[in-house]
Design goal:
The protein has about 150 residues and is mainly beta. It is built from no helices and nine strands. The structure holds copper (II) ion (CU).
Length: about 150
């Protein structure tokens, strides 16, 4: 009798099915775009102002007080005096309502305090009548008028 029984291993190597969990880590590389705008400083050719307005001390006033320019013109104010002056076309800065007025759609502007010899340039883009004042001399009636035509 052939006892040589080929015993097949009945025990199956049961391997528990393991789900391999694949964790994908997506590294998000932050792409930073370097703006070139900072490096691009446009140096526009300085055009001569269409009008120069002087600021004087005695009495404190703009000379000329009233003038007319065109849209696109640049007006230059010059502190031709020995004290501080300003070109203030901002209604919020007026002590007395009405001392500053701007045409509809015009943005307020303000030179801030100008030292003797300082200049301030502004290019008008909106037509209409501008009434502006000098911060130190509003009480003295230092108010200017500009009519900007199209
Ligand atoms: Cu002034």
């Amino acid at each position: 009798m052939d006892k040589s029984l080929a015993e097949f291993p009945t025990s199956k190597g049961t391997r528990p099915t393991r789900k391999a969990i694949w964790m994908k880590r997506v590294a998000l590389a932050g792409v930073s775009l370097v703006g070139l705008a900072a490096a691009m400083s446009a140096t526009a050719a300085l055009a001569a102002p269409a009008l120069v307005i002087k600021m004087t001390d005695k009495p404190p006033m703009y000379e000329p007080t009233k003038a007319t320019v065109k849209v696109g013109d640049t007006v230059e104010w010059v502190n031709d005096a020995k004290t501080l002056h300003s070109v203030t076309a901002d209604p919020d800065s007026a002590q007395k309502p009405g001392d500053v007025s701007l045409p509809p759609g015009a943005q307020p502007f303000d030179s801030g305090f100008m030292q003797p010899g300082a200049t301030f340039d502004y290019t008008f883009k909106v037509a209409g009548t501008y009434k502006y004042l000098c911060l130190p001399h509003e009480k003295d009636g230092m108010i200017g008028y500009l009519v900007v035509t199209k």
